[in-house]
Amino acid sequence: MKKIFTILSIIIFAVKGNAQTEDIYGGKYHPAKEHFETQYKKQEYPKYSRFQIKLEKDRMIIDVVKLIEFSKNLDEKFKLIFENGLLDPMRINGNTVLKIASMDELPLLSTNPQTKRFKFWIFPQNSNAKKDSVEYVLRGRMNPNEYYFELQNENADENTSFKEFVEGAKLTYLAYGGIII
After folding, report:
1. What is the pLDDT of residues 168-179, one digit of tens each?
2. CB 168: neighbour CB atoms within 10 A?
3. Dihedral-angle region of residue 32 (phi above 0 means left; psi in -120 to 50 means alpha; beta otherwise)
4. Residue 167 clears pLDDT 90, i.e. is over it
5. Which residue intervals of 54-176 are DSSP H helices?
6. Which residues contact 67 (CB under 8 A, 6 or more apart)?
7. Backbone φ, ψ for residue 60 (5° rounding)
8. What strands lie across the sheet with 53-55, from one edge to the other?
């Protein structure tokens, strides 16, 4: 009886410890949830064609002049978003160079199977900023900027793989979220 109780206790604690749930009102979701509730306006953005994109190990070149560098820790699935020409550095930070520090999907904020929402962090690279502007002062800071974006694929359903979703997706929202402190 003692052995059974011990085994059951271990199983219960292991399951309870590993069954942490994400909370839409805390952690990575709180600022994103507020942002989408107060700032969201559906938009449409053009997409680069695949022949304009050259993918290398930890970076991607678009139209020969735009460069997106990835953190070595960036999940390979997120590179699909860039490979499919959905995000443009000039639209994000006004520069031809973009360094993605991290990216995360926000499944609790995705409203249906045709919509996926994400956040990513970049470090300021705006060399085009005027010397007396706030952007110029802040470009060398240590804290990254957080951005939010939304992809929609009208043909997706619950069984659509991430790759299929992204290949048929359009960028429908992109916005600055704030500075990560």
Report:
1. 999 999 999 988
2. 16
3. alpha
4. yes
5. 76-83, 89-93, 134-138, 162-167
6. 59, 60, 61, 89, 96, 97, 98
7. -140, 140
8. 53-55, 59-62, 66-70, 97-105, 115-122, 145-152, 170-179
